[in-house]
Amino acid sequence: MSAPVPINVGNTAFMLICASLVMLMTPGLAFFYGGLVGRKNVLTIMIQSFMSLGWTTVLWFAFGYSMCFGPTWHGIVGNPMTFAFLHGVSLQTMFTGNDAGIPLLVHIAYQMMFAIITPALITGAFANRVTFKAYFLFLTGWLIFVYFPFVHMIWSPDGILAQWGVLDFAGGLVVHASAGFAALASVLYIGRRAVVENKPHNVPLIALGTGLLWFGWYGFNAGSELRVDAVTAAAFLNTDVAASFAAVAWLLIEWTNGRQPKFVGLLTGAVAGLATITPAAGYVSPVTAVIIGIAAGAVCYYAVALKNRLGWDDALDVWGVHGVGGCLGIVLLGVFASKAWNPNGADGLLLGGTAFFVKQVAAVVICSVWAFVFTYGMLRLIDFVTPTKVDREAEEAGLDIALHGEEAYPLGI
Measured between alpha carbons, how far is 235 from 49 in angstroms, rounded to an integer? Predict the structure, then answer.
């Protein structure tokens, strides 16, 4: 019988810091979305993020972690009872996914932060028009039937896509593509807003949110190595490089088309770059991160333009930024991946990895279709229980007052 792996203090401390950084991204997202919506709907969009912070933790503790990382059921989902209510987890229980020497409690906490922010991303798509009761049911169902199974399929060693050879370093499929195409399904099912407000009410709030997201993303990407090594450093640098080049690319394209450099465009481009580099951060070189960042800024900009042309009321561009960005990142990983930058990764299309590229593209299709179909069907079922969409009077009054009886900016303040 082998001796237990001792706790590595450095790796454990690093992962706890990364978990804290990822947790900070959810309040950052609340600020980002809060600044983008109108004054009468700020609290409504922000409470949805903070509700995920609370309720997702409850589900994660009860059975979510077990569904993600418990013993597999046909490679699709883990046994929900194995770690239910953290059964069998003690101070001495170690994470066995690698030899990093971190307690299992650290892995549980770190992955929980991913679970919290992912459904919160979707809320930007149906901003200003969904009842809170419907959102609560949506949050619960989406985690159970979309997010938890995809975490298992891709990030659990026994997952069917992991066994097939699909790579996703920090969540291009698990987080961004799934949330983006769930957002598109939400937009198409719930329909357009009766009162359309596309002008941000508070750009400094958007900037604050972007800063918190960007800062937290270092924990999101670099922490996904689950230890401190050279790959961790590459993922950290790639994150910043891609975000920066994407921000500048978006700004220049928008400036060329609209004759003015827009601050919100710069901020949105940065988020697009962060979403796009996420699946590739630990598998590619910094030079490749530059290419991915530029591609993210351009492709996501035109994806949002296409959305506007088609008349989809994706209020805060979740599909164009996160859905398209996540899918683009997975495909570009299939092109540019290099074992020279991560021996545990793969070689992409440019290095002869044709089969790997095909698998990445197939995984994009599987994830996008799964997230779209389940989300659309789930919203239809929720509508039988409670209305998903608020009435016109509530939209006109503002959801802060109509649903929550609170105001972000009371009269006279």
Answer: 26
Residue 4 pLDDT grade (very low, low, confident, very high; cuts 50, 70, 90): low
Residue whose structure tokens are 């910043």: 240
- To 10 degrees, what angle do helices 148-155 and 354-385 make? 170
Structure tokens given for 90 = 């003690």
Nearest to 276 by CA among 239, 234, 301: 239
Handedness of CA 42, 195, 377, 373 (dihedral sign): negative
Phi–psi pair at 82, nearest 5 degrees: -60, -50
Question: Hey, what domains does the chain have and what are their CATH numbers?
Answer: 9-404 (1.10.3430.10)
DSSP per position, 124-186: TTTTTSB-HHHHHHHHHHHIIIIIHHHHHHHHSTT-HHHHHT---SSSIIIIIIHHHHHHHHH
- What H or E segment, with its residue span, contains residue 195? none
pLDDT tens, position by position, 249-276: 999 999 999 889 999 999 999 999 999 9
- 368-400 pLDDT, tens digit each: 999 999 999 999 999 999 999 999 999 999 999
14 close to 108: Cβ distance less than 8 angstroms: no
3-class SS of residue 103: strand
The mean pLDDT value for 231-244 works out to 98
C-alpha–C-alpha distance, residues 53 and 46, integer Å: 11
Best CA proximity match to 89, nearest among 101, 77, 103, 102: 103
The token pair that represents 99 in the structure block: 């030899």
The maximal CA–CA distance of the chain, rounded, in angstroms, is 71
pLDDT of residue 1: 43
pTM above 0.85, yes or no: yes
Distance in angstroms (rounded) separating the CA atoms of residues 25 and 179? 15
